[in-house]
User: Fold these one by one.
Assistant:
Number 1:
Amino acid sequence: MNFLILLVVIFGIVAIAQLAKVSDLSASLSGRREEDISKADSRLIGALFMVFFAVLMGATIFLYTSYGNMLPESASAHGVEVDWLMNFNWWIITFVFVVVNALLFFFSWKYAYDPARKATFFAHDNRLELIWTVIPSIVLAVIIIYGLKTWTAITGPASDDALRIEMYSKQFDWSARYPGADGEFGQGNFNLITSSNPLGVITREASAEVLNTLEEKIGKIETNLGLELGLLQAERATLVATIATDDHGHGHDDHAAHDDHGSHDDHGHGEDAWKSIAEHRIAEIDELIAHGGDGLLIWTEAKIETQRAKLHRLKRHRQRVLDVKGFELESGVDAWDAGKDDKIVKGEFHLPVGREVEFVFRSRDVIHSAYMPHFRSQMNSVPGVPTRFKMTPIITTDSMRTILGDPAFNYILLCNKVCGAAHFNMKMDIVVESEANYEAWLAAQETFVPAEEAAEEAAEEAAEMATEEPLAETAMQH
Ligand SMILES: [Cu+2]
């Protein structure tokens, strides 16, 4: 089928080329020059231009009416402004588009070639220059100033009582995090990311969990390296060689020691201790090699290298986790505690209608983009650089379903950056509802550290405080 279409196109082109050749030939036969076009031909071309203009305008009107409003009315307060700005620009563009094309095609028809008419020629006109410089300048200034004003209002700081939500992106899903009762997000640190803590929220539990896992892995590799036959033999050989050269060197040292009194004894003692440790270790290795049996490992050098590199990485990771420090946040909340009552949700998140929301965007891996088309919002989510965007939802999901006559309608958050294989799958539903319904929904969500665990921990801490206090008091009295 495709091949047939291709054939038709090729033959069409050939036919047109042949026709052109025929008209060339007939022109040369009748003695006309190629660029001589009859008045009738000119009028025909002019009329065709008018037909084309009519089709163009018809198509434009059709496209504007069928596809002009792909989104329903804005569901956010600033979105109304954005739509105004967008429409304002479209009206200007449409006006210019129609006027320019009308003049272009109408003039082609009206001033079709006429050998009896001579064209007026003028090289310069100040008035015209002024008109087509000043008018576009004014229009552009209006568009830019209006746009900047709207943009500044949209991106300005959020009010103090705005609800704050963190949108966390990774390949390939979104999480929404609510700060919990203390109003503070627990800080995030990528060194604490685990499958149960995908956002890397800093809490004592998260830190302890990561440290445990790391210790386990480090211990396992160290044990294995201690059972590798080649390494054991190499270590034994080094120890034996060191003892041998040391014995030899000892005599030499003896002579030198005559100069500094007293040091000889110390030196000798330390050496003996070291030697006995070395001998002990040699015995240990011999024992291992002789009776290690199945426990012994024989690895290639490459394998030993990769295991050592892995060990190095794990130890570095452990150090980074140990370096994570708790600190006081501005509100006085301990950073170690701020994350406990955070609520992390997936798949769907809720917003109260009429309340300002400030989104903070964070990304784990690559640049994603949070796109909420019904709210006219979009913001990139960039690894290492938190971004933000504020908005106020003004239409609940239920109202929008009524407006659209679609009971299945849902607001959505999409990823709008092609971020990898499952990019298409990165979306969340957004439910806008009354403040009361929202509060009820939020209350039903699980906190990051489950409430019972947090209570237990608080009780433990209180008990510790109780035993410490009397001590502190006696210390004060002294
Ligand atoms: Cu994405």
Note: The first strand starts at residue 163 and ends at 170.
Number 2:
Amino acid sequence: MPANLTPQYLKAEEAYRRSSSPEEELECLQVMLRELPKHKGTDKLQAELKQKISKARKETAGPAKGGKRGGHRIPRQGAGRVMLIGGPNAGKSQLLRSLTRATPEVAPYPFTTREPLPGMMPYEDVMVQLIDTPPITAHLLDPETQGLVRGADLVLLVMDAGNDDGVEILQEALERLAQTKTRLARESYLDEDDVGLSYTRTFLVANKIDLPGVDERLALLHEFCDLDFPEFRVSAEHGTGLEPLKQAIFAALDVVRVYTKLPTSKEPDYDRPFTIRRGGTLLEIAELIHKDVARNLKNARVWGSQVHDGTVVKGDYVLHDKDVVELHV
Ligand SMILES: Nc1nc2c(ncn2[C@@H]2O[C@H](COP(=O)(O)OP(=O)(O)OP(=O)(O)O)[C@@H](O)[C@H]2O)c(=O)[nH]1
Ligand SMILES: [Mg+2]
């Protein structure tokens, strides 16, 4: 890893991984190139960044603008984006049905889902975006799905643990992904030595545990596959094991909820919290409300677990889960 990467570089890199439009990608790449320490050790990285910038430029200028392009058709919504991926017939669509109000087609034969389809999963007082996808096989990997996985906060790798071919089908999907620069890991990161290589944090979801033989199949999976993802056992159809999965999904997003209140009202708006990454500041909340609020922010009063009630803070104040803030512009 090249040494001395600035906080600005790392921030831009994280934004690049999560970007949802070519324009955003281009902007992040330009910051990355500007912030990259220029010396022999970063020559390769510099060249790669330049290449990506020129590619992103073409994409933002090209006729495809605004059209369908890998992963950018579905806008980001809610506290985070979670992809449901896996081999055919694993129960991805059934899982989306069980966790959200979306109604994708579920059928007892493979290749039912043809394109990514989002749904919103309620968790406590926030919503999380889940996206069902077409199956991945040795010969099939939908480019839009691949793009979405790169920018996602979390992947649920769904395995059919109720059928004997489940292990092999999952392995095939993993092998297909391993041939691309979009891979799965315990934590999300970009490979520093190969900017295109992106890893997305993943949970293994063993589905159909209402059927017999699940333990044996999981043992087999671990014998043949060196997977170290956190593991959840569920029956999407019967609703078994979904609560712990939901909790873990929310925890993995690593967001804090912030309730805003007007100076004139006694109570904050408890129905619709804003969510930001843990470690985020008051200024980020102001930006979510409106660019003008961010620009004109003087200070805010905060009620929360970490401060005395009504403490006055500035834009760089780091928020905690369930803080209530009253912004003054
Ligand atoms: N027994 C059992 N069957 C399930 C469960 N979840 C899904 N199924 C069944 O498995 C079959 C496939 O489910 P889908 O949700 O369509 O699977 P998919 O992964 O979306 O399949 P593709 O769209 O082809 O990739 C259907 O017959 C479902 O009823 C479960 O928890 N238990
Ligand atoms: Mg499906």
Note: The CA atoms of residues 23 and 282 lie 26 Å apart.
Number 3:
Amino acid sequence: MGKKEQKSGKKEIPKELFDILACPLCKADLEYTKDRKGLSCSGCGAKYPINDGIPVLMPPK
Ligand SMILES: [Zn+2]
């Protein structure tokens, strides 16, 4: 409560980008992992890393 988005420190995905992100496997919405270092799919549970503020949506092989 009361915490605002921090502009310094680790980068976060811009909201405009976050809004259009979808899992490449099942097209479900993505959400931050608990440590906010990556994204996880709300549908199939696939995990994706965030590289310098850019989500890397490479389907696992
Ligand atoms: Zn998925």
Note: Residues 15-20 form the longest helix (6 residues).
